[in-house]
Amino acid sequence: MATAHLSTRVRHLGLLVRKGRMGNEALWGYLLIAPMLIGFTVFFLIALIASFVLSFTSWDVISTPQWIGMDNYVRLFRDDEFVTALRNTIAITVPNVILRMIFSLALALALNSDIRFRSFYRMLFFMPVLTMPVAIGTIWKWLYDPAFGPINGFLARIGLPRPEWLSNPNTAVVAVIIVLLWSGVGYDMIIFLAGLQAIPAEYYEAAQLDGASGWRRFRDITLPLLTPTTFFLIIIAIISSLQVFDLVYVMTRVGNANKLPTIVYYVYDEGFRNFRMGYAITVAWALLFIIFVFTLLQFRLQRRWVHYG
Amino acid sequence: MNTHKLRQRLGRIGLHVVLCTVGMLFLLPFVWSVSTSLKPLADLFEVTPRLIPSQVRWENYSDVFDILPFGRFYLNSVFVTAMRTVGQVFIASLAAFSFSQLRFPGRDIIFFALLTGLMVPDQVLIIPRYIIMRNLGWLDTYQGLIIPLLFSSFGTFLLRQFFLGIPKDYHEAAKLEGANPLQIYWQIYVPLARPALAAFGFLTLLWSWNEFLWALIMTNRTDMQVLSVGIALFQGQYFTNNAILLAAANLATFPLLILFLFFQRQLVQGIALSGLK
Amino acid sequence: MNKLNRRTLMQASAAGLTASMLASVATGRFAAAQETGYNGEEVTLTYGLWDAGQLPGVENQIAVFNEQFPAIKIEPQVVPFVDYWPKLQTGIAGGSTNDVFWINTANFPVFATQGALLTIDSIIGEGGAEPDRYPQPLVESFQYEGAQYGIPRDFDTIALFYNTELFDAAGVEYPTGDWTWDDLRAAAEQLNQEGGPWGFGAILSGQQNYYNFIWQNEGKLINDDLTESLINEPPAAEAIDFLSGFFEDGLTPAVSIMQANDPEDTLFPAGQIAMMPGGSWHVGVYKEANPAIRVAPLPQGKTRACMIHGLANVIWANTPNKEAALEWVKFLASEEAERILGQTATVLPAMEGLQEEWVAATPEMDLQIFLDAIDYSVARPSPPTGPEWENEIERVLIEGWGGNIPRDEIANQAAEAANAALSRE
Known about the structure:
The complex is a heterotrimer. Chain A has helices at residues 2-19, 21-54, 71-77, 80-112, 118-130, 133-143, 150-157, 169-197, 201-209, 214-242, 246-251, 263-273, 277-305, and strands at 57-58, 66-67, 253-254, 257-258. Chain A is mostly helical. The longest helix of chain A has 34 residues, at 21-54. Chain A starts with a helix and ends with a helix. Chain B is flat, with a radius of gyration of 24 Å. Chains in contact: A-B, A-C, B-C. Chains A and C meet through loops of A and helix 3, helix 10 and helix 17 of C.
């Protein structure tokens, strides 16, 4: 029988495996990550190193790069526009990440429970992820329209002042965060749902037999077992928030200027519109440095609160 | 009805009310997108958009196919996305399994190095990557569109977290059986992580379907264009007929809706401890 | 043709190239166009453009071209306008881009000064492209260091669009060719209503709005060396202040409103603005959007002026198919090709005398105004550092008109920002 054959083979293999276990495991380890690693090196790492070299040049893209040493980095430290972009980016990131985690977890919990129309609701909150950026940008620009939009229309009717929303950097930050939340929760919700599904039902059943309440079950089973997923989502939220570009490109631009430039917007502007690609790459590396350090910190701290099976 | 049940009932209704109200906001752009796609040109110049078009113009949808070879764009997108999704899920899950379950020197450092793939905006690397593609002769080819995008740091990270969350008992039991890591991966961890794999697969599919920059830079010939770039072609320098643009966009989004319904079924309880043989 | 003849021919045309270039530099006039040296081999040229709406016209041009040159295949490749420039730059940097492509006046200098384009002097003259038949400001826009790199393909000028319904409702006389700045201001005041419809649309575009006013006041944007902005000198500063007045007095939609609602795409055709300066490309859309819209010449200040802008077909310097590309560009500059453009009535062909179809396509509007405007048109000055200085001026004006800079400081800060951009690498 085929299965008997297979199990004999496996047992033979097992003997070999147990003999040289450590070395063999390492070999397997490298083998299984090989495709990812090779592709990553060829199609990403090489380009990344090339870009690092380019950050030491002055390059208008069309002609050959000119070596200028540390000039770009020196310039970065005195660049007001960079500081503005950095400030805007952080002002968006901090509230966005916190609120996003809270809302998407709440949503996932609600839509994981036994309520009716669960599938319909999941679809509903996932819609923004499926909607085209042009539609998102247009509709939200109309909503935030200071003269003709419904938000200010409503505020006027209840006697509140009407902000300029996207035209004023301070209110624009709030406006952008709202849209980011709106378009991001569906995405996170999917991953949280997968994470919730991965918690074995038996744990809940055992807890219920012990007489634990819903809140206790949530606190002692759900939350801890969800921490790997939560950790992932926080890191992803921070990294993607620090790189926000599409939304500010569509919503806060007026003419050729931008009321709320973010770092990646600044990179794009300097590189492709002002023909200063060398400097643009320098700015991108500054961002990479920030993200890298921050993520490293998160990984070190995870031992304190992330609970792995 | 006792007070406990009543409170529960009211709580449920309250939840539905909240979900529906907030949900309407989530549906709004989609509704606007469909409504605008059916409008005649004259309707597009209004300051306050109206919900019902003055005259429903179904021809906008057929115009899409008349103006550009939209059908070809569709085929390209389907092929490229299918290949990318399958490839990414496979490669990332293999690596994630290894990073989470196997031990080898430098494992955590290599993993963290992979994460840098998430930390750089695409525009920065586009020119060096373009040069690499040109040297390989992969411009305007399917392999050029697919292969460089098969290596997802995001997926590796996501699936590693999930694999780490699976109780170690499974791995121990399998090792005692003498199974090699590839078999453990394929026969045990893949089935157990089905919700995560489905989530990652679906999100990758979405990302690939809408991916724009790489397709724009890598392809020149019109017959190689994918939907995301094709739709952008409906934008003129000075004027865009938003109705036709949105008709094209909706045509592209529609299959994703159907796929989402299918994907939801994958979100079933994955792990049953009693499966431990 | 045997090899010896071909080589001699190519050597002769190479010599001819240098001779004609010397001649053109010396006299500014071209004698006869040279042979391109194309030898009939099978070639495929890629042709880059940014407007899918123009494809039918381009296909017609290709068909006619192929009657004479069946072995040269032309493959049009459309890229959306916004993405056109990053993609072009990436292609040039990466060593592979379109053989022939569109370029506009704003971007031309950067590409020309960095050596990304091929000169087309060899095909200029009798039997080839004739620059005399095109608006001179545009022809000069595509020259660099005495050499010609492109012949204008299509052009646009600026006029004053107005909404007859709003004029009738307010009982104001329609704009005429004699209007001055005072007339414009007075009419705007009469037409204006708080919260809309506004009397005038002071749109945030140099090309369509403020450059024209500056030139009408005999002001200058930049000095002749293209090194220093003169926008803070009295004539230009006065023009800016004239427009600032509209914002301060609420005669134009506020900057924040124009950010949320594009005045050209939405506010004006929707009847929320009574008068708005605009480019000739709006005609096709406006006649569908709102039948009450008409056209008048821009008002005059101390003089008449409006901006002319156009795009040209240029050749990539490193194309492997130089000869075939020159043939294609020579054809595109010919009367035949321009006539095909004219017949589509979508854009204004740059060659003189071929605009009748475009004018006739919209009889209710007096489109001759746009053609007459060529006589007093000015092309944008384009320093080799690129359009950044213009973007900086625009940014400062937007801040100022949005109320974030004191009114009398706006022109000074604009000049400062422009000069900073001009002196940057």
